[in-house]
Design goal:
The chain is α/β, with parallel strands linked by helices. The protein has 3 domains: 86 residues, Winged helix-like DNA-binding domain superfamily/Winged helix DNA-binding domain (Arc Repressor Mutant, subunit A, Orthogonal Bundle), CATH 1.10.10.10; 108 residues, D-Maltodextrin-Binding Protein, domain 2 (3-Layer(aba) Sandwich), CATH 3.40.190.10; 105 residues, D-Maltodextrin-Binding Protein, domain 2, CATH 3.40.190.10. Helices cover 41% and strands 21% of the residues. Helix 1 crosses helix 4 and helix 2 packs across helix 3. The longest helix is centred in the first third of the chain and has 32 residues. The protein is elongated and about 105 Å long. It starts with 17 loop residues before the first helix and ends in a 10-residue tail after the last strand. Belongs to the LysR transcriptional regulatory family.
Length: 331
């Protein structure tokens, strides 16, 4: 017959804090409650109560107190290296986090779609940084899906991109919207066929078309439009970034549609922009942030500078506006 089983020890209550361990280490180092209280900026009664709480937690006496000295008990000796390692690891983690936070406060990380990267950022960054010495800006360019992913993963502080339906992790604040238009070389036959700088979507039939993939802002807009010519619905070329798009257009491989902001300050005078109607299609761009994230003042200042620049560009513009944008959530 089996003998009596050993009684299980009660589960320990792990409520010790860094404050408890730091107090314990200070008393052990100084071998004095008075000197430890001075180092920790505590009253001696408060320090004594903290040590008593820790002794209650570990279930044993940590110090033997005499009239002239304070020495570690066996339990205190066993606890000392563990407490020292935990406090050192905690302090190191805090220092590293502070260094990272300091680095982030001196560097704004921004995810941007190509039109913002090439048409807005070059116009504002020099002035923005002139009054903020030491501040750096890191631009991560991509299509809208890339930007949303960067924001979602906390790889950038803020993003400027289109919205692809509700997202539980992201917040979208309306920034601006612009019409889709046609980009082509001046020598293309459609350029001469335009009336007052405008064509109908139907006029694009049977011309080589360079399309954008569905993970961009433009691709989903075209996919939802009805009665587009076959040459647009099934383009001869399909790309995912604007640099590739412009390279194909500049070399005369076809025509394409892109938002009106991309037409501002075109560097290549061989490329023309025409309006498209029947129907008129709009792209909406948002300030994309991670839900619940607070921004450093410099990020907020950059957003306001971008908003001001777009307000200036859209003033009196027929194809770029900062109003009438579908709202997802308040930012």
């Amino acid at each position: 017959m089996a003998g009596p089983q050993p009684q299980a020890l009660p589960s320990p209550s792990y409520t010790a804090t860094i404050r408890h361990l730091r107090a314990f280490l200070s008393v052990a180092k100084h071998r004095s409650f008075t000197r430890a209280a001075t180092e920790l900026h505590l009253s001696q009664p408060s320090l004594t109560m903290t040590i008593q709480q820790l002794e209650d937690i570990v279930g044993g006496t940590l110090f033997d107190r005499t009239t002239r000295n304070v020495i570690l008990t066996q339990e205190g000796t066993d606890l000392f290296p563990v407490a020292e390692r935990v406090v050192d690891d905690f302090d190191l983690a805090i220092r590293n986090i502070r260094l990272t936070a300091s680095s982030r406060n001196s560097c704004i990380r921004v995810g941007v779609v190509s039109s913002i990267a090439t048409k807005i950022m070059p116009r504002i960054l020099e002035g923005f940084l002139a009054s903020r010495p030491g501040l750096r800006v890191q631009l991560r360019e991509g299509n809208s899906n890339d930007v949303r992913r960067l924001v979602r993963r906390n790889e950038v502080d803020i993003g400027f991109a289109s919205m692809d339906g509700p997202d539980a992790e992201l917040v979208f604040k309306p920034l601006f919207r612009d019409q889709l238009g046609l980009f082509l070389r001046h020598t293309h036959p459609l350029h001469a066929a335009a009336k007052d700088g405008v064509l109908r979507w139907a006029d694009l039939a049977n011309h080589n078309f360079v399309g954008l993939t569905l993970d961009t802002a433009t691709g989903p807009i075209l996919s939802q439009m009805e009665h587009l010519p076959e040459s647009i619905r099934v383009p001869k070329y399909e790309v995912s970034t604007y640099p590739t798009l412009w390279a194909l257009i500049e070399n005369g491989l076809g025509i394409t549609t892109a938002p009106a902001l991309a037409a501002e300050f075109l560097p290549d005078n061989r490329i023309a922009f025409l309006g498209l109607t029947d129907p008129v299609a709009w792209r909406s761009v948002y300030i994309v942030s991670r839900l619940g994230r607070a921004f450093p003042p410099m990020v907020t200042a950059l957003v306001k500078t971008v908003e001001a620049e777009l307000a200036a560009i859209s003033n009196g513009h027929s194809r770029i506006t900062t109003s009438g944008i579908p709202v997802s959530e308040e930012w």
